[in-house]
């Protein structure tokens, strides 16, 4: 499977030490990979919410003489149809769905290399207890993962509320033997998530993070970050790709747990005996 334009852009930015403003530009470019090669520096600056000189400095930080040289390179490594050639007959709801379909395609391309997910699965399977962190917009992702993970993992601890007790609960998990923490981090990124990840690493936990971008603010506090883009076509972001990536991580974790199948069969037997489900 060939890399998508977004994946090729991602590779272009890897290995560079970028400032927070430059990471914002890079994130914006990955999310709009189809349009970016056709934007002027002023248009890209407006799209990213930064100044035009910031775009120029960003291009220089990547090793180019300026933005025109970067744009020429983008047209070579991330070719895409110009915006005018794209389908324009969709209404705003259809466009949001099409955007999520493209996000899922990007996720599929990324999963062509299963090594990061398999590594994450081993780390999560080897941690008991397993704390799962997700605040605000990411709380539903963390809750869904924790619900299903509890069927195959012996001790899953959901951390979906902030406040002064969050650090205490991370400390308690570490004291009980946890070796890793799974974090779902979605925009807008709460400061508490960054602080919690920093605290978890200080407590000796390996942090595995699902984030909307490799350039998200949580990146520097994550030992293993696996990106899954969010949709921005509606008033509130949509997170189909992060949700699916969470299920993929569940599969990888279950594969690494020797008694996962036995636990599932035991749950099914108990559920049948109690008449939990009507189907």
Automatic annotation (TrEMBL):
Native species: Streptomyces racemochromogenes
Endpoints of the signal sequence: none
Domain HTH rpiR-type stretches: 5-81
PANTHER family according to UniProt: GLUCOKINASE, RPIR-FAMILY TRANSCRIPTIONAL REGULATOR
Name of the protein: MurR/RpiR family transcriptional regulator
PROSITE patterns: HTH_RPIR
InterPro entries linked to this entry: Homeodomain-like_sf (IPR009057), HTH_RpiR (IPR000281), RpiR-like (IPR047640), SIS_dom_sf (IPR046348), WH-like_DNA-bd_sf (IPR036388)
């Amino acid at each position: 499977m060939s890399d998508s334009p977004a994946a090729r852009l991602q590779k272009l930015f890897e290995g560079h030490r970028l400032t927070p403003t430059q990471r914002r530009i890079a994130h914006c470019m990955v999310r709009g990979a189809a349009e970016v090669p056709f934007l002027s520096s002023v248009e890209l600056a407006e799209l990213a919410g930064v100044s035009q000189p910031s775009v120029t400095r960003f291009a220089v930080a990547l090793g180019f003489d300026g933005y025109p040289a970067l744009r020429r390179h983008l047209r070579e490594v991330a070719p895409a149809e110009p915006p005018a050639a794209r389908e324009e007959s969709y209404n705003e709801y259809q466009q949001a769905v099409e955007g999520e379909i493209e996000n899922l395609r990007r996720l599929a391309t990324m999963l062509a290399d299963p090594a990061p997910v398999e590594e994450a699965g081993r780390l999560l399977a080897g941690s008991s207890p397993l704390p799962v962190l997700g605040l605000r917009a990411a709380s539903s992702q963390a809750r869904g993962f924790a619900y299903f993970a509890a069927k195959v993992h012996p001790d899953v601890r959901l951390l979906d509320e902030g406040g002064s007790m969050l650090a205490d609960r991370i400390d308690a998990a570490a004291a009980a033997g946890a070796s890793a923490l799974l974090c779902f981090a979605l925009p807008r990124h709460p400061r508490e998530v960054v602080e919690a990840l920093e605290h978890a690493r200080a407590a000796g936990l390996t942090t595995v993070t699902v984030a909307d971008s490799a350039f998200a603010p949580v990146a520097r506090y994550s030992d293993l970050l696996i990106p899954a883009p969010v949709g921005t076509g509606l008033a509130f972001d949509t997170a189909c790709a992060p949700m699916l990536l969470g299920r993929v991580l569940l599969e990888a974790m279950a594969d690494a747990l020797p008694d996962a199948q036995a636990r599932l069969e035991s749950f099914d037997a108990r559920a049948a005996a109690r008449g939990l489900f009507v189907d």
